Amino acid sequence: MKARARRARAAGWLVLVVGAVAAAPAARAQGASPVVQAAGTSAQATGASPQEGTAGAQASAEVAQRSRDADAAFARGKELYRLGKLDAAHEEYRKAWSLKQSYDIAANLANTELQRGMKVEAAEHLAFCLRSFPATGNPTQHEQVRAQFRAVRKEVGSIVVKANVDGAEVSFNGTAVGRTPFPHEVFVKPGTVAVEARLAGHEPARVTLEVPAGETYTADLALLPQERPAPPAPPSLPPRAEAPAPSPSDGADTGGPRPEVLIAGGAVAGVGVVAGVILTVLAVGRDGDADAQREALVREGGATACAVDSPRCVALRDTLEGAADLKNAVLWTFVGAGAVGLATGAYALWGGGAPRPAVAAAPVVTAHGGALVIRGAW
């Protein structure tokens, strides 16, 4: 009970002292009219336009009105606090603070915030009160505010925000707290605080701090300029597919029938026919020799002259085999000559429109016969 009584007496003294100090701004506000009039007279004397003088007078009048509204809300807050209506008093003090930031309003607002458990807000307003407390202010009140700040400072943490650019919007755990630069530390609840800074044209900067009660940490935020994307490359056209030119060594005809092919084909066919005729003559001659040898053997030994093998019978068999080989050579020579002739004729009619296989033919004549050799790729 004694401790509660002491706190009540201390709060009462604080309200009385702050009320006495608040009376001075009200008196200054009442005496503002002559200053405004003097300013208007000075503007006219220096040759300023009537519009500029009127705008200055309106601005001064608005400032004076805001100050009077703030003093009225401050007075209502003190009365409500005296009646024990803490929440209503806090609301009036907040209204006064939104209109005018002064050390006396900050002190009374912090007092209600402490009683409502708003420690971070109370630390902020007490710090402002100490920074702006006048040198001619009441020492007792000043010491009381210092004691309150020391007590609440042990229960909250604070962050000093530093950034490499000005004007960046800073947020704590997603809640905006202001823009850089920050002239003073920012009070926070103890725990994890995610600090983020954003500025147009820059990459966001983030840092996470674990801030204990009663400690101050520094958040260094480096916002780097965003890299401009490289201009897109012009679309490349797909390469045109070109058919490879046939090599002359492939033996392909591409420009119509070539005369050399026709001449060669005709020559080969003609040589084949000539070779076939020669082989035919040779085959007929061999047949004639075989008939003469057979007739001589029959005259001398009868129909069974070769029943017993003899040199003359062996010679007859060789002559017959040679005649048969020549007949086969004649057949294939004419067949080959005909094939070359047909291929040459077809080439003469349709050649050159598409690649065609190259064909080469040559007759071969030996002592035992002849043949036509045809070479090509199909």
Features:
alpha+beta, three-stranded mixed β-sheet, 3 domains, four-stranded antiparallel β-sheet, Immunoglobulin-like, 9 strands, Serine Threonine Protein Phosphatase 5, Tetratricopeptide repeat, 378 residues
CATH class wording of the largest domain: Mainly Alpha
Q: What is the total number of structural domains? A: 3
CATH homologous superfamily heading of the largest domain = Tetratricopeptide repeat domain
CATH topology of the largest domain: Serine Threonine Protein Phosphatase 5, Tetratricopeptide repeat
Overall geometry:
rod-shaped
Distance between the termini: 122 Å
The name of the CATH architecture of the largest domain is: Alpha Horseshoe
Describe this structure in words.
It is a single chain. By secondary structure, the protein is of the alpha+beta class. The protein folds into three domains: 1-154, Serine Threonine Protein Phosphatase 5, Tetratricopeptide repeat, CATH 1.25.40.10; 156-226, Sandwich (Immunoglobulin-like); 251-376, no CATH class. 57% of the residues lie in helices and 15% in strands. It is built from nine helices and nine strands. It has helices spanning 2-30, 32-45, 50-82, 86-99, 103-115, 119-132, 139-153, 259-301, 311-350; strands at residues 157-163, 169-172, 175-179, 186-188, 191-198, 205-211, 216-221, 359-366, 369-376. Strands 3-2-5-6 form a four-stranded antiparallel beta sheet, with no helix packed on it. It has a three-stranded mixed beta sheet with strand order 4-1-7. Strands 8-9 form a two-stranded antiparallel ribbon. The longest helix is centred in the C-terminal third of the chain and has 43 residues, at 259-301. The protein is rod-shaped, with a radius of gyration of 62 Å. 24% of the residues are buried. Mean pLDDT is 77; it is low at 15-46.
